[in-house]
Amino acid sequence: MHKLMFLILISMLSHQGVAAQRIVIAGGSITDIVFALGAGKNVVAVDSSSTSPVAATKLPKVGYYRDLAAEGVLSQHPDLILALQGSGRPEVLTQLRSTGVQLNLYDKPTNINELFNLIAQLGQDLNQPSQAQRLINKLKQALPPKAPPSSLSALFILSAGDRGITVAGPETVPDLLFGYTGVRNLATEPGYKPFNREAMLVSSPDFLVAPSHVVHSLGGPEQFCQQSALALLPAAQQCKLLVMDSLMSMGMTTRLPEAIAQLAAYREQSTL
Questions:
Q1: Distant-in-sequence, close-in-space partners of 260: CB < 8 Å, separation ≥ 6
Q2: Is it the case that residue 55 has pLDDT exceeding 80?
Q3: pLDDT the model gives residue 147
């Protein structure tokens, strides 16, 4: 407690006479956008979900955005904290605000319009509205038209283990990517939910998609495909697996056109 009070005092003193902002970010989508706006030079720390761009990964970490600790954030002496809704516990946010640090909370974007709104809001808050509008226009030009529905089906696997699998259904970024590329998502429950093994075997996806952090934690694509929960799937037996960057495939970022292109290319490869 004494250490926390000391950090609070230091943080309050550090705000006096400081010209340049020291920004701490909690939320990978926000980090991605702030750097794309050219404001990365003022960012002094990020959370562990901030895996893009490369420059952000070299900054000090303040933990995972949903489990922030006031001490870790205040140790970076910020005068501005940009965070996604759901960051930290209410008492942690109260502690941060009590220092006089400006704390801005933003809704997590779940569709393209919400991504554009977040970019515009961050541009306004960082006094870079023109840069934000240019970024929005650039993304609009880069986004391809939606592909017509194809006969291919897939599942986005968030986890696979002895307890079964968890997949991405409607109202998730992976579902949006499937929709853009004309791939039928076999998961029909909104959000990230367990998927019934029997239903999975009956539906039999043509290929699987998984975030890189999950695949790497299991030892790589081959080990991922050999998980017992997936063993009876032909797609797993042949390891028809697209491994995508975790933030790019699960978060609404400025790399959305890249994510769509990557999935579209794998879809085309799967039809050969």
A1: 143, 144, 177, 180, 181
A2: yes
A3: 94
